[in-house]
Amino acid sequence: MQVEIWSDVVCPWCYLGKARFEKALAGFEHRDEVTVTYRSFELDPGKAETEPLLDMLTAKYGPRAAGMEQRVAGLAAAEGLGYRTDREIGNTFDAHRLLHLAREKGLENEMVSALFRANFAEARPVFTSDGLAEVAEEAGLPRGEAEAVLADSSRYAEAVRAEEREAAELGAGGVPFFVLGRRFGVSGGQSAEVFAQALEKAWEASAGS
Q1: Residue 157, class by beta-carbon neighbours within 10 Å (0-12 exposed, 13-18 middle, 19+ buried)?
Q2: What is the pLDDT of residues 116-153, one digit of tens each?
Q3: Would you say 114 and 141 are in contact if contact means Cβ atoms under 8 Å apart?
Q4: Is 0.85 topped by the overall pTM?
């Protein structure tokens, strides 16, 4: 059974959702027969400048922004995840292009994990070519191949756009968005229990088809 996850590397609920889904998958009887694929989704595709995250959130939500981030940090800590609120926010299109390279190399999960860790737990830059190449290398990708993709803006660009179009066609207005067996959709960073129920339901449906 295939599970597709539309997500963005700067989405905190995607970060939490990945951890919670993986907890559910680890306890799923048929986990060895589940293939997980990460699909591209940009929360802010028109973003041009990199800026401090709290500046952006404060402009959007006012003085409650810092408290909102602290609450998410608490949820992350409960999942055993690092979470820094002093990170930056920027355009993620190049990160998604690199994820397609990682998929071809069989290192997609490693690359998603490395991007999440660098951004959320370490507040490292994932919006520059140097920063992305470093993260790619940590994920096991040859740095030279990552740099070649980053230097050519056309590489994997259409693949990213195609997955974003598919998200829209499926009705995914936000992320994370999980599609299980092409039959069931789960939206948001749900609990491990919700994901476990969805896995069971999707498996039963696929087995009966």
Answers
A1: middle
A2: 999 999 999 999 999 999 999 999 999 999 999 999 99
A3: no
A4: yes
